[in-house]
Queue: 4 jobs
Job 1
Amino acid sequence: MYDIIIIGAGPAGMTAAIYARRAAKSVLVLEAVNYGGQILNTPDIENYPLEAHISGFDFSTRVYEQAKGLGAEFVFEKAVEIRNAEGCKEVITQKSTYKAKAVILATGSENRKLGLEEEERLVGRGVSYCATCDGNFYRKKTVAVVGGGNTALEDALYMSDLAEKVYLIHRRDSFRGEETNAARLKERENVEILYNAKVTKLIAEKRLKEIEVTDTITGSVRTIELNGLFIAVGRVPENQNFASVIDLDDAGYVLAGEDCHTNCDGIFVAGDNRTKTLRQLVTATADGAMAATEAVKYLNN
Ligand code: NAP
């Protein structure tokens, strides 16, 4: 029986492990793939306090070593279910069942992919899912943003300040995102909006060089030369396995506020998989600290 099981070894989960160990609680971190989570894909983190530049890999490795050094146990198995049992929570993985008095769910969320050939290989080579993280690499270059939600509109605005030319490619003729953002974009001289348009092919050598864009009404196809493609077509939180014990919103995020409490006593949530407005490294680590502190209070009471 552990005091706390943390599901997910991204920045939120590993920070929670650090805080829980410093409060002298026994901690098991369950992780499906690698420690680090989504930040592993970021070649250069420039917006986290202290280090002006650090790769996602180096950042994750240092936090992992810090958590392990404090005595957190890591097991690389995918958690597939949480059960409320007598006096504890059971976390079921594909291989085993683990027990704890409290659980912190830090499973994060994935970027929704376009599902194009080569999309995965080109991440960091012209394809990005985060303008705030990678936009600076495209100063005075040509980029495209895909999507019609607030993230895509804000990414296009952000990139129009940096890049020479920004294409915004949306599959419909009206935006899902706020009109004020759309109106501001329409005033930008270096932004060209392509409505009813879908990216249907990525053309690359080592890096992305061109995209093929298909008009969804006429079927006509054009090719656009560019340096970067920012895909902002929503996110997919990884919570569905736990929906039987905690409440999710319509988009699948765990309903929770800044205190990281879920509707279920003894289950806390930290990071990108909870309802929040800013999903960044710094807010994920902040959640980890908060969720662990609340879990420790729960255990001590
Ligand atoms: P979103 O609102 O779900 O929008 C996703 C966009 O991507 C939609 O326009 C959708 O098109 C498009 N899309 C989805 N799948 C696609 C595909 N396979 N190919 C092409 N296009 C595709 O996601 P989001 O923009 O990331 O925003 C998520 C939430 O965070 C929203 O509630 C948003 O308001 C909020 N948010 C708020 C702020 C803010 O308040 N400042 C900033 C960012 C995000 P359709 O419209 O045709 O479905």
Job 2
Amino acid sequence: MKFFIDTADIDEIRDLATTGLVDGVTTNPSLVMKSGRDMADVIAEICDVVPGPVSAEVTATDTAAMLAEADVLRAIAPNVAIKVPLTPDGLRACKALRDRDTMVNVTLCFSAAQAILAAKAGASFISPFVGRVDDIAGEGMALIADIVEIYDQYPEFDTEVLVASVRSPKHVVEAGRIGAHIATLPPNVLRQMFNHPLTDKGLAQFLADWEKTGQRIAGPRAAAE
Ligand code: E4P
């Protein structure tokens, strides 16, 4: 299961990238706005830090203008994935970009029917928004299960299911159980995944007992520090 980070905050990305657990990054216009940065600058910096796919979203709504924006975004770095909305124009742009071997993330997916269209348009990634479906009393994870099941029927679909709008570690666990390829996590969700009170308690006990032994683990590296 791959983890992308869902933010345009470069400090968060730099910090989390040191864990070695970050396979890519997703951004959207709201996240760029929140970062307060120029989009091209921040995408270039993210692409330097994370070698995996970095989604940068077009803001035009017609195919020709989306493709013009995609040219600008693609030129930033080879690992930019162009994010397009799940609209007829967006899927036309998706097909054209995939024909040019550009990675495409189709976003704002809220139904299995939409996900089928995206796969037929050759999307590299489909982004169903689980949290926003839950917000309107729907079943976000049922949507993921449907999409994974449908894609599995068609070996010719090579679109990866990228679970988006993730709100908690529970969403990540459910996505893993279903077999989704990727989850894009807000930084706080990735951090929460490390936490367990028994880990903290167990570590405190081990360290206290170790202290009582009076020993040190000392090799050449420890001695140099
Ligand atoms: C990622 O690609 C999406 O834009 C993002 O996950 C949306 O999350 P939100 O519903 O929390 O804004």
Job 3
Amino acid sequence: MKPLLIGGDWLRTSHGAGNVNPSDTADVIDTHAEAGIAETQTAIAAARDAAPAWGRSTPQERHDILRRAGDELLARREKLGRLLSREEGKILPEGIAEATRAAQILHFFAGEALRQTGELIPSVRPGITVEITREPVGVVGIITPWNFPLAIPAWKIAPALAFGNAVVFKPAELVPGSAWALADILHRAGTPPGVLNLLTGPGRVVGQAMLDDPRIDAITFTGSQATGARVAAARPGGRVQLEMGGKNPLVVLDDADLDRAVHCALDGGFFSTGQRCTASSRLIVTEGIHDRFVSRLADRLAALKVGHALEEGVEMGPVVSQDQLDQDLAHIERARREGGHLRTGGEVLRRQTRGYFLAPTLITGTEPAMTINREEVFGPVASVIRVRDYDAALAAANDTPFGLCAGICTTSLKHASDFKRKAEAGMVMVNLPTAGVDYHVPFGGRKASSHGPKEQGTHAREFFTETKIAYTAP
Ligand code: UN1
């Protein structure tokens, strides 16, 4: 059994939960300890005790720990990428790429620990100086989803530590293995006892106990809209950062490079089995290119090799769980009932191993008001909305409660520039997939997708530090 990490000690629990491979449900990767309310409270107390000294540690100490952890992650990226793919179901090259990205994130924030600055402002009153500095927030609760088992924990834990906060980390139940590996690496890299605590276990127990505990100063969460709403409700007015769903549009205009547009839709909609909040799930296509685009994409999807995530040559792995598969199928069924046309996919695939394999699915003839265009599916499913021209495309793109990212494929500078300005999204991609972002750049959305300061890049410090303004007279 893989234990919890509390106050610098590894702790076993009487109960454990199996970590099952979604490509092969007969493959139980490991068993992980399950924290309850008592363990959660002990971890929070440990973080509370450790926070003051850690907050006073030098930037060099924090840099060195993150640097060492990043180095190890990079050196072991093939093995850790394999574990990630085995427990989450994205294909091995994607798993290894994610392990590499997590290492790069640790290295980036190792540097950020050294780059902290303040401001010195001459007062309007004689002789007085004003200093603006940043201080750690204290204890940060980190709740992460299953779709990026290493990268998302890395981009929350690394800045939390870099800026001097103690962490209580609760990963998604479906991917405890990657979370455990990351905590183990950071622990051995020299994180002092109590500064990083790992609580594997059920969200409704551990996550709830974290939300309820006032000794946690801030919560950063990535996951579903429903859970995000619970986090917000539990902490009214509190320091909360929420990254929730998306219903991201990819606009394809008549003048687009067809090959590029098909590639953007394929990558953005279906790589990582479409299980990304940045996925291009609404393909908004103008009339002149619609039929060619749909037919090329449908052919490519029908030929996509779907199978065991660790098998050589497989292009798309399984969806993550039976629950997720059921939800995906229900979305497809509802889209058909509401008038959508199933162009390709829609069926569960049998392979040599028992896994949750779903054929990549394209639904055409949809309208913005249909459920498939309003609710996030979080699977290998995209819908096509046919529109007359650019203006109609822009209106359809913005016709959603979400606002994470928005993409456009066009060779028109005029339309690209207009779209960058008018898309109601935190991130806009021109001639690129909506998913797959740089690790050193801020990340985040608008509207119902996000709440609070942006994550990552230099903007990460907004959430993980408090500003102090000090006036001094001689
Ligand atoms: C990416 O597209 O590279 O949960 C990152 C998600 C996002 C991360 C996407 N928070 O899918």
Job 4
Amino acid sequence: MNKIKDIRAIEVLDSRGTPTLSVTVTLDNGVSASAMVPSGASTGAHEAVELRDQDPSRYFGKGVLKAITNVEEIILPALKGKNPLEQTKLDQLLIDLDGTPNKSKLGANAILGVSLAIARACALITKKELYSYIQELFKEILSFPMPMMNIINGGAHSDNTIDFQEFMIVPVGFSSMHDRIRVGSEVFHSLKKLLHEKKLSISVGDEGGFAPHLKSNEEAIEYILLAIEKAGYKPKEEVAIALDCAASFFFEDGLYLTQKKMGSPKKVNSLEYINYLVSLTEKFPIISIEDGLDENDWEGWQVLSNRLGKKVQLVGDDIFVTNPLFLQKGIDLNVANSILIKLNQIGTLTETLNTMKLAKENNYKTIISHRSGETEDTFIADLAVGTNAGQIKTGSLSRSERTSKYNRLLTIEQSSR
Ligand code: PGA
Ligand code: ZN
């Protein structure tokens, strides 16, 4: 039997230049594997806790040395000598070792890094690709995900004037990974040309999508539709639109602020905001809306789900935070029909897989997601393939922390031909 011999972590930088952990697990046969932990900006209130040092003399308080100490001084002694192939048991041990409901003692960043590095080490010792090791844990068929590619960034991910956080294209008319990614890239470049011609900024936001100063959410969608056509594709049939409103960002004192970032906010209530979302779906080929409403507006979510749930994919991110308790509440209340899956919202691989199982058993669609603060780690590409997740959201067609996931999917596709 292989045993865990050592676990070490170092501070590395994420795509925003903020520190995060890279964790390396070494087994007694000399095999070692690492994993890096991502970090969100528009985080849900009920996410597992990302432990930061709060020491203002380093990285403006954002260092992760405490989390590293937790890995090396608390987690290592507990896991040393254990069989790495027992992922479920080891993840439970990590959960128990922390002992809090939101992993605030050891830090979800410390715990997740260990959990993922163990899975990678196991793929190596079982001589499997990571996706097929995950498939063995999850007991599903393998499949390639439909990507939702974020080509205009707004909200908390840019300093432009757009309120919605993500405007994504979905290459629904294409079945291979390489065609989906090629089409995405062509539309991305066609949009770049259009924005440049209009003398709008072609700098990008946190997830590699353009972040021009536009007048409204509608204008962003209109530019994307034009870019799809200019690239030679049919909007709707070949390339559809998906949104992440990340509505908690513009929800204040029970009301939704329209045009918050334009500096001329108008306050509307939940029902009025739902009318607005419905009108967008009538006007544009929108097939998916994530976080259309605030993370605590369960009543609003019920109304929205009633009105749009049969026609549009309604994705719960901040409202579910990859947590089976919140997802179960959503299932019971008929809220949303789909869940965004982010490993670091819950903190271990096993819990993530359990949430996905619950979603699948209840016919909720699953979308594996990156965070706005990412690294070059490509774990989520394998996770999407190995769990038959169906969809992946991993940003724009630029910036290596985004394209590394697409490139991993292309590599998996090539090797499986
Ligand atoms: P975050 O954004 O990583 O900043 O939370 C991603 C999302 O909201 O889907
Ligand atoms: Zn989101």
